[in-house]
Amino acid sequence: xxxxxRPGGQLSELETQVLxxxxxxxTIAAIARTLGSxxxxxxxxxxxLMAKLGARNxxxxxxxxxxxxxxxxxxxxxxxxxxxxHLRRKEAxxxxxxxxxxxxxxxxxxxxxxxxxxxxRPSVPA
Length: 126
Description:
The protein is mostly helical. 62% of the residues lie in helices and 3% in strands. The chain has six helices and two strands, in the order E-E-H-H-H-H-H-H. The chain has a two-stranded antiparallel ribbon. Strand 1 (3-4) and strand 2 (10-11) form a beta hairpin. Helix 1 (13-23) packs across helix 4 (58-67), helix 2 crosses helix 3 and helix 5 packs across helix 6. The radius of gyration is 18 Å and the shape is globular. The protein starts with a strand and ends in a 7-residue tail after the last helix.
C-alpha cells in the first residue's frame, strides 16, 4: 500500500508500517524485531518518511501521518479489526481503516474466486 504524503511523494509499505509502529510507541529496536529487519534499516526508513512528510522528528511525522490519513486516530488503526471497532463505536472510520477494509474485501473476493474455479472443474469418472 502506498499512501500520499506531502512534499516528497508517496510512502512505501515499509515506511507506512514504521510510521504505524512508531505511533504505537515502539522503539527502533522493537520495530526492527516486528518487521524482521535491522535497527539501521528502520532508522533509514524513519529518516526517509520524515523527509517525505516534511517532519522535524518522529513525533511530528506521526502527527502529520494522522492528519493526512496515513494512520488512524487510534494507535491500533490501519487494519480490519480497527475498522470494525470504528463501526461498533458508531463513528466514521479513518482513512487508514477504510483502506485496510478495502484490502480485506479484495483478498476475500480473490479467495472466493479461487474456490469457485476449483469447484467448477469437471469431475473425472473413476
